[in-house]
């Protein structure tokens, strides 16, 4: 009798384990299409380079069309029927404004839009603008303009909603209910909060986006919806630098407060801009992790020109597949794919490979803030294998053996866990005083010293 019962329980129980309703979606970003790239003349960004450039790209350059085309077809080969695609912008190359104009910028945005529509004709795409999707770059005005309007015309088939189209025309942001009942996407224009957007520095709420977001999330709470938040520039601190914050401080605070306030309706946040593979955790007043933001690596391999980077400043091209629970909308896994550009350049064939599955490589059940917080606790251990993998994946495995010393590690962990700028600084300084080896102290001195020296020179 007992055995029979056990068998029935087993029989009923087993299928339910595998029956979680799992769907997938792509997150792809930062293509930075450079139409001037030519491997035959070894030039990109309109400049000649000192070394032979590969057909699919080079770490000193933005993306040739061959790389972009290859990345989109690789997405289709790997998963041709995702529930939706998130595309977080930055379509144009890193070059002087003098080499660009409004019509060139638009033609690149439209080129990538059409390619994505060609490769995934029946998939909903939730697209956001990046700071390079405007001319002059970064300087997005907090109101309607010809670029938002032209982009809205070409994204009409993705909006299929007049209200969304209208808010996009006015401010470059929108919200849409998703095909599955009870879920919603909110696409923001966080370029307004970026310190390079000089037009919004003195504005308390550019284009009224924060008030609008508060209202959308209030409505979602009442309707018991789960919300995916999508944008380009992330809040918080850049983990491969000692002192780089993206948002103006006042917007960083307001944004963090809003996310914590509405964390119970937020399924996930999908951001970009850093070109690295990373995540951020938001904590409430009681210091419990309540929301997670995923930052996807770029398609462009371009090495940033930002001074004083800690470690490698370029990355391998990446494309990111999420797994999620269709019933709860919560993301459950990342299947990160990448292109080993060194190898590609040697063989002249683009062989996109699985880099890692987060669940397997990190040993986590899902991507909930609680699971990720547990992972960060593992990162903190000495010689943490999880942190070593995280650090390799951070650049899409550009230099598998690259090491990250004590201070480097603290900067990464504090960037993940402290969105607030004062909290971040306290986290690093507090952590640094606990540094034990002479080597750590020297590294600390060098990194902190650079800023002190710059300040001294500036003062004199
Ligand atoms: C784009 O990629 C597809 C699939 O690999 C290939 O058939 C096509 O020729 C490529 N187009 C260009 C312009 O590279
Ligand atoms: C995008 O531009 C490339 C190169 O400039 C061109 O070969 C390609 O046909 C264009 N693709 C689309 C879909 O417009
Ligand atoms: C959403 O739910 C409503 C009411 O239950 C139903 O009429 C509609 O068909 C559902 N839509 C989808 C896409 O499932
Ligand atoms: C913002 O305020 C600063 C300081 O008052 C001023 O220099 C700057 O021109 C203002 N910017 C705009 C866009 O109004
Ligand atoms: C919030 O819901 C109200 C009532 O349905 C609606 O009128 C309003 O437009 C919604 N707000 C936003 C920002 O979507
Ligand atoms: C990428 O390819 C190069 C050349 O074959 C190789 O040395 C390197 O280890 C590869 N990187 C990874 C992460 O496999
Ligand atoms: C690209 O490949 C060529 C040979 O095909 C090689 O000479 C060159 O150094 C490579 N460049 C990079 C960045 O790997
Ligand atoms: Zn970018």
From TrEMBL:
Query: What Pfam families does this protein map onto?
Result: ASMase_C (PF19272), Metallophos (PF00149)
- Which cofactors, by name? Zn(2+)
SUPFAM superfamilies listed in its UniProt record? Metallo-dependent phosphatases
List where the protein spans the membrane.
Answer: none
GO biological processes: sphingomyelin catabolic process
Q: How is the cofactor bound?
A: Binds 2 Zn(2+) per subunit.
Q: Where does Zn(2+) 1 bind?
A: 30, 32, 90, 275
Keyword line: Disulfide bond, Glycoprotein, Hydrolase, Metal-binding, Secreted, Signal, Zinc
Q: Which GO terms describe its molecular function?
A: metal ion binding; sphingomyelin phosphodiesterase activity
UniProt subcellular location: Secreted
For this record, an example GO cellular component is:
membrane
Domain (Sphingomyelin phosphodiesterase C-terminal) ranges: 288-428
What's this protein's family per the entry? Answer: Belongs to the acid sphingomyelinase family.
User: What's the protein name?
Assistant: Sphingomyelinase phosphodiesterase
């Amino acid at each position: 009798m007992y055995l029979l019962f056990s068998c029935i329980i087993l029989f009923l129980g087993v299928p339910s384990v595998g029956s979680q309703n799992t769907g997938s979606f792509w997150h792809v970003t930062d293509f930075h299409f450079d139409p001037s790239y030519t491997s035959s003349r070894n030039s990109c960004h309109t400049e000649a380079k000192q070394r032979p450039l590969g057909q699919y790209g080079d770490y000193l350059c933005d993306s040739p069309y061959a790389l972009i085309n290859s990345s989109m077809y690789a997405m289709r080969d790997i998963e041709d029927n995702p529930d939706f695609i998130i595309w977080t912008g930055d379509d144009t190359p890193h070059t002087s404004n003098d080499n660009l104009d409004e019509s060139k910028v638009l033609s690149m945005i439209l080129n990538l839009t059409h390619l994505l529509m060609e490769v995934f004709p029946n998939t909903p795409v939730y697209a956001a603008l990046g700071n390079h999707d405007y001319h002059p770059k970064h300087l997005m005005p907090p109101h309607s303009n010809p670029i938002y309007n032209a982009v809205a015309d070409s994204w009409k088939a993705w909006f299929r909603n007049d209200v969304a189209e209208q808010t996009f025309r006015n401010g470059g942001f929108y919200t849409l209910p998703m095909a599955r009942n009870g879920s919603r996407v909110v696409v923001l224009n966080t370029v307004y909060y970026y310190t390079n957007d000089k037009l919004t520095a003195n504005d308390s709420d550019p284009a009224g986006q924060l008030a609008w977001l508060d209202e959308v999330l209030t409505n979602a709470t009442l309707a018991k919806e789960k919300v995916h938040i999508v944008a380009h520039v992330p809040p918080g601190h850049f983990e491969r630098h000692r002192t780089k914050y993206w948002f103006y401080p006042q917007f960083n605070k307001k944004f963090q407060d809003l996310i914590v306030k509405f964390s119970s309706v937020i399924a996930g946040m999908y951001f970009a801009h850093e070109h690295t593979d990373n995540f951020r955790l938001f904590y409430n007043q009681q210091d419990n992790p309540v929301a997670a933001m995923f930052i996807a690596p770029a398609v462009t391999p371009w090495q940033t020109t930002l001074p004083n980077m800690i470690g490698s400043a370029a990355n391998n091209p990446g494309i990111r597949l999420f797994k999620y629970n269709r019933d709860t909308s919560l993301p459950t896994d990342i299947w990160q794919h990448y292109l080993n550009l060194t190898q590609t350049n040697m063989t002249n064939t683009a062989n996109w490979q699985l880099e890692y599955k987060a669940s397997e490589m990190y040993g986590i059940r899902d991507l909930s803030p609680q699971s990720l917080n547990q992972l960060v606790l593992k990162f903190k251990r000495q010689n943490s294998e999880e942190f070593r993998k995280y650090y390799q994946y951070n650049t899409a495995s550009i230099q598998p053996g690259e090491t990250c010393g004590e201070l480097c590690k603290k900067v990464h962990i504090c960037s993940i866990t402290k969105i607030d700028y004062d909290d971040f600084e306290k986290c690093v300084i507090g952590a640094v005083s606990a540094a034990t080896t002479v080597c750590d102290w020297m590294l600390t001195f060098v990194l902190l010293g650079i800023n002190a020296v710059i300040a001294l020179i500036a003062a004199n």
